[in-house]
Amino acid sequence: MSAVEQDGDRSLGQLVAEATAEMSALVHDEIALAKAELRQDVKRAGIGGGAITAAGILALFALPVLSFAAAYGIHNLGLGLAWSFLIVGGAHLLVAAVLGLFAMAKFKKVKPPQRSIASAKETAAVLQNVKPHPRPAADVLPVGVTVTRSSV
Predict the structure, then answer these.
(1) Which of 2, 59, 69, 124 has the fewest C-beta atoms under 10 angstroms from its C-beta?
(2) In the chain, how long is the greatest CA-to-CA distance?
(3) What's the pLDDT score for residue 80?
């Protein structure tokens, strides 16, 4: 059996075409796995980002309210309209703090695509062991025989 027809009746061209098709399918599967993992993490990050935005907006709304409350409080030095503003401002800050904690919990759940990374490392390890030209492990030539480029 010649080196061209090592694997059954398939030619070297057929083997290369099959290997290329399998490599293409492997790359497509790796990309699909990475997309699936990243889609879930992007959703978590989006929810966390929305919560952080809401917390920032509420904290921003609380600043003028607290400023009005402090001004009225200093002016009145009593339990009047200013305390109302202070209670509303404190409630806004409390809601902002709760949303901020919720957002941090969502952000901590975002992880790198571990299965895709492991699969890519495994594929790279397999491909590093592949030799470009399969040849016998040791070609032993009789003593005195030399191989030149023209005889190969």
Answers:
(1) 2
(2) 112
(3) 66
Q: Are 109 and 57 in contact (CB under 8 A)?
A: no
Distance separating alpha carbons of residues 118 and 90, to the nearest angstrom: 48
Predicted confidence at residue 4, as pLDDT, reads: 46
C-alpha–C-alpha distance, residues 25 and 98, integer Å: 46
> How far is CA 14 from each of CA 8, 126, 140, rounded to the nearest angstrom?
11, 21, 29
Q: How far apart are CA 146 and CA 57, in angstroms?
A: 82
Verdict on whether the full-model pTM lies above 0.70 = no
pLDDT in tens, 23-61: 888 888 888 888 888 888 888 889 999 999 999 999 888
Q: How far apart are CA 74 and CA 82, in angstroms?
A: 9
